Amino acid sequence: YEIYLNGMSGTVPRLPTDLTRLEALAEHRLGPGPVGYVAGSAGDGSTARANRAALERRRIVPRMLRDVHERDLSVEVLGRPLPAPLALAPVGVLSIMHPEAEPAAARAAAAHGVPYVLSSASSTPIEQVAEAMGDAERWFQLYWSKDREVTRSFLDRAKAAGFTVLVVTLDTPMLAWRPRDLDQAYLPFLHGVGTANYFTDPAFLAGLAKPPQEDPNAAVLHFLGLFADPGKTWPDLAFLREHWDGPIVLKGVLHPDDAREAADAGMDGVVVSNHGGRQVAGSIAAADALPGVARAVGDRLAVLFDSGVRTGDDVFKALALGARAVLLGRPYVYGLALDGQPGVDHVIRCLLAELDLTLALSGHATPSTVGAADLVADPG
Ligand code: FNR
């Protein structure tokens, strides 16, 4: 009620509480390069639109008189108690959005006890982000490089810096056809921001003829050439299992059979995601893929979800469709762009407050009681 009470006393929030309006405001304020980077998606954007439509199409059927006066948003994910079914999704090169970049987002997450998933393509080295987070829960996202030494080096650095969960992104063996990126001069754009996590990595630097400061073009091209690997197959996961002690989560799983493969390969979780519609144009909406994956492996793996989450009721719907928790993507990036750490804090607060109210008003005191019976398909 904090936000309502502030409103009564004439204080309005500095940023919109409606995260779609916040997105519009950020797009209005940012230049075409940064807007294109965040808002852009694959092809004509149909997958990103489908992600929203699939969530909007499902409607909650609220229940009454269920004693919701005391509520608890906490859940357990991968054996970890989390204060809410929420983590911040990995988003690369955040210095495009704000000079304080990843450490600002990570500090905001840490203050709420929400796990921060640090991207491999971070504009801040792993160690510096860890330092900004104290002993808060942190997960590391791996772009699984062609170069074994770079992969090994990233895993070692992340482990040493206290990252506990490894999130391996499978849906980006190559960058997709993203017109808004292709239509701008990408190489100079990437120079300006750097992907400092690679550019400070000893194994990455060993592959360069000259340091990135002397030949930034060559460094960026080297990065684009090795950051992912279209040649990987399921048996390759054994390498990661061998080099990572904690839970491993595969991000970008949409087919129930791939989820079963993940379970058979000894993985601990999956993120049902289509990368926010940035990889396969025309792909199945993430929310449409979620129930099938949850049915296939929900009893063996932690099933997480992202792609299209903008509101508390979206989180509720994802839980009802079988997710344990969701990853929040673009909204926190817009919060960061508009106001740094307080902007991300604002976004997390709004989302959690709205989730709390949605749960209560729908007759639930905890996320654990939400299920398929809480939703119907919009009859249109
Ligand atoms: C991403 N995403 C992403 N995923 C990942 O595994 N590593 C990364 O470095 C990035 N980088 C990235 C940059 C930007 C600008 C965006 C918008 C997204 C995907 C991200 O983790 C998540 O899957 C999507 O953002 C979810 O979609 P919505 O909810 O943001 O639309």
UniProtKB/TrEMBL annotation:
Keywords for this protein: Flavoprotein, FMN, Oxidoreductase
Database matches in CDD domains: LMO_FMN (cd03332)
Gene3D superfamilies documented for this protein: Aldolase class I (3.20.20.70)
InterPro entries linked: Aldolase_TIM, Alpha-hydoxy_acid_DH_FMN, FMN-dep_DH, FMN_HAD, FMN_hydac_DH_AS, LMO_FMN
Amino-acid positions noted as binding glyoxylate in the UniProt annotation, renumbered to this chain: Y37, Y143, R178, K251, H275, R278
Active-site residue list: H275 (proton acceptor)
Name of the protein: Alpha-hydroxy-acid oxidizing protein
Organism: Streptomyces lasalocidi (Streptomyces lasaliensis)
